Amino acid sequence: MTGAASRADICVVACAQAWRGDGAILASPLGLIPSLGARLARLTFEPELLITDGGALLVAPDADVIEGWLPYRDVLRLVATGRRHMMMGAAQLDRYANQNISAIGAWARPTAQLLGVRGAPGNTVNHAVSYWIPRHSPRVLVPRVDMVCGVGYDRAAAAGIRVPDIRVVVTDKAVLDFGGADYSMRLRSVHPGVGADEVRELTGCPLVVPDDVPVTPLPTGEQLKLIRRLDPDGKREAEVG
Amino acid sequence: MIDRVLGIDDVIGQLRPGMTIGIGGWGSRRKPMALVRAIARSGLTGLTAVSFGGPDIGLLVAAGCLSRVVTGFVTLDSIALEPHYRRARQNAAIELTELDEGMMHWGLLAAAQRLPFLPTRAGLGSDVLSVNPELRTVRSPYADGEELVAVPALRLDVALIHMNRADAGGNAQYLGPDPYFDDLFCLAAERAFVSCEQIVPTSRLLDAGPPQSLLINRAMANGVAETPGGAHFTGCAPDYDRDEAFQAEYAAAAADEQAWASFRARYLDGDEASYAAAVRGYAAERARSA
Lengths: 241, 290
Known about the structure:
The complex is a heterodimer of chains A (about 240) and B (about 290). By secondary structure, chain A is an alpha/beta fold.
């Protein structure tokens, strides 16, 4: 093991922490860094987590061992059981955790058509969700999303449904949560070398900043070894700003 | 057992303008692309496509066949956004019924079970309900009284799917890791047509996979067409993986009209045999320049 932890390594560990305490549920990471985070969690403090190979197979995190089969039809059925914690991406995310991955601009004629709502509406009303934002910017963290795909706290309250379970937002600068008043966005920690003011400037919606903001923990030596084993070519470095 | 073997053109001959067509597979995986290419050549218009969308949607949009798409996403997987679909949406050239993936599943299941709707929590609180004002909610008649989204049945005139193996009667088998929703598409449709890599004698169906890989039985299929390479350039594991280089070529060609016109002339204007020959030519060129 050589060299200090990179920003990507810190993000991997911050993502891994999202699944702490989840037990035997499906961890569904989207993106390389969340995926490394889920596997790191599984290899260390959360050994009961279920993870897939990115397809229909449930696998051990760093070996060619298949422990189960979970085709898309079963993933969709699992969603409604609540036994899943997904880390999704977001083209836009707002103060109360509404998320957009569908289209930017007016839905009827968007300025940018993106993927579509995918499973975000069902995921957010059924099970735990976290978000991974590889480039913390006011274009992503916005006052209001253009199309509510993932349902946030204010929209869920207005619809009279269960309070969402949005755990954390890991970005390349910080870790956020929704522990402010009325479940509003709050700064939980800043990554080493990042200031709270910088995070506030890069956030396009109001952000609750506590008086004392801790620094996101550095990976331990054991965690660094595992991350480098899971991603020996360092592909994770290209995923952060 | 009735012989249900058809040619590609026989299948396309069953389609009419304005029909609602369900297309199996998922994203850029095991799509019935030979049938999709044939629709694109046919000049059929006004179609509604119900699909977990991939290049099937892109090709049909580019050919002007679709007036509406019913989907939760359109993606090429390794290339996140489908360029033809993207442009059509940004020009408001097609209508969209945008549903959550779970709602798509429920809508197909409702149609398959001949139910008017199935209830779900998916969609509540989201803008899926705002952009589809025809969607209704329903209240549980039991003590909980919970309000749920009533996902309407996604009834299909025709389903098109692609499988690895089939017999002449329409029993069909998938050999990859995921069945996707192909059986539901067939059951949700008035008529279902299966393309496959290879038609084998019924007695040979279990050579390649166990009984539970026989996803489609002949009560679910009205016709079966042998189309080797019929999912290209999407993946059809284990027969072949997605042709990433060719998919990138497809996506790049979509960027401007002239490039698309030459792509279409080279690959899409002829029949399936000429498509296969042109793709072989492309692969040979790539090998030489590598």
